[in-house]
Amino acid sequence: MRNPTTVLRGPHLPSRPARGPVLGLAQRVARGCRRGGARSRNERGSISVWLAASSFVMIVLVGLAVDLGGKVHTQQQARNIAAQAARSGAQEIQAGSAVRGGISQVDISAARAAASSYLAQAGVSGTVNVQGGDTLIVQVSDTYDSKFLSIINLDTMRVTGEASARMIRTEGGVEK
Predict the structure, then answer these.
(1) From CA 83, how far away is CA 79, in angstroms rounded?
(2) Taking Cα atoms as reference points, which of 89, 107, 85 lies closest to residue 98?
(3) pLDDT, tens digit, for every residue of 21-45?
């Protein structure tokens, strides 16, 4: 140990004599600077392990964000396709009674064919049901192929979408 009245000088140290616990701290700092750092030998490489672990966690989090965002986007597309298929099918009405001003009803076979054709053109599978003679319900199934989650054997995620379209007849803006 050095004499407690030693004067420590430097650009960042005071030029007055150091005493008591301050001396111990100043000496430790000065010794650490001379050795190239204040870390002991058993801490070498600990930052590398921490960096590798945190990098892996960040990659997993980015992968989750990308794949879950992709799944949500695919699900929105499935809903949009179902809505468009339902609208295209609901336009198929029984022309005879509609032209005479009678009750307008969906032509069930033509509506199913039109909606199924739309689903086939969109490249998805689904079901088409007619309810009450004027409402077409379309359910769509599709899959999302994951980009990052395939690392943990989650290659595809199933998404579904459902929409309905009701055919109505109006005269002067009033539903009949």
Answers:
(1) 6
(2) 107
(3) 555 555 655 555 555 555 556 666 6
